[in-house]
Design brief:
With 200 residues, this protein is of the alpha+beta class. The chain folds into two domains: 106 residues, Kinase associated domain 1, KA1 (TATA-Binding Protein), CATH 3.30.310; 89 residues, no CATH class. Helices cover 28% and strands 41% of the residues. It contains five helices and ten strands, in the order βαββββααβαββββα. Strands 2-3-4-5-1-6-10-9-8-7 form a ten-stranded antiparallel sheet, sandwiched between helices. The two termini are 16 Å apart. The relative contact order is 0.14.
Length: 200
């Protein structure tokens, strides 16, 4: 089972060149290795240390891929974080912790699990859904083969989690807001459609 996490963030009022340089500066500060960039569109790097005992911790060794693209208000950055082969089993067991630890500043995060067959994906989706039965879930139409929405509100944070299954892939897309900031539903729908289109 392959696992990776996707995060997106919009840098409002900033051009791609500026954001690219900021990310490069952050990677340098973090002592990332094997940094390869194509200015101002993409960066790949290895972040973290193999000495970190818990593979899901923030500083665990991981591969990062950054894609920069224009957005209506500035520059959007899409980040994919994948564990190294040595950490993959640890991350699979503590996926939620890894997702949070690796993307604390993300507005949107996505955990993806790829299975060997559609049947396996549907079976795991059913199991995950059963584990959420103590929370109010809402069926969401128009996105994915199966999609359920869980909304959690604990001031000042509001979290919307979309649990989905599409073909041989299951995942959770999490949208979080702070201090009452309202996420536009049309933008959420666009993000869900984007993720669905990536599943071939």
């Amino acid at each position: 089972m392959a696992i990776s996490f996707q995060y997106t963030h919009e840098f409002r009022g900033e051009q791609a060149d500026e954001v690219y340089d900021k990310v490069m500066g952050w990677l340098t500060k973090e002592e990332a290795r094997k940094v390869v960039g194509v200015r101002p569109t993409s960066i790949e790097a290895v972040h973290g240390s193999h000495k970190t005992m818990k593979g899901w911790n923030r500083n665990a060794k991981k591969k990062l891929g950054f894609l920069f693209s224009p957005s209506p208000n500035g520059t959007a950055v899409s980040v994919t974080a994948s564990p190294t082969m040595a950490n993959s089993s640890d991350v699979a067991q503590m996926a939620e912790d890894a997702r949070l630890n690796w993307g604390l500043l993300a507005e949107v995060s996505c955990q993806i699990m790829t299975y060997s067959s559609v049947a396996h994906a549907k079976a795991d989706f059913a199991t995950i859904f059963e584990n959420f039965t103590s929370y109010p879930m809402t069926e969401v139409g128009g996105h994915f083969e199966q999609c359920q929405l869980l909304t959690l509100s604990s001031s000042p944070v509001v979290v919307k989690e979309y649990l989905f299954q599409q073909k041989n892939v299951c995942g959770v897309i999490v949208f979080s807001t702070v201090w009452g900031y309202d996420l536009d539903q049309a933008w959420i729908d666009e993000m869900l459609d984007l993720q669905e289109s990536r599943i071939v």
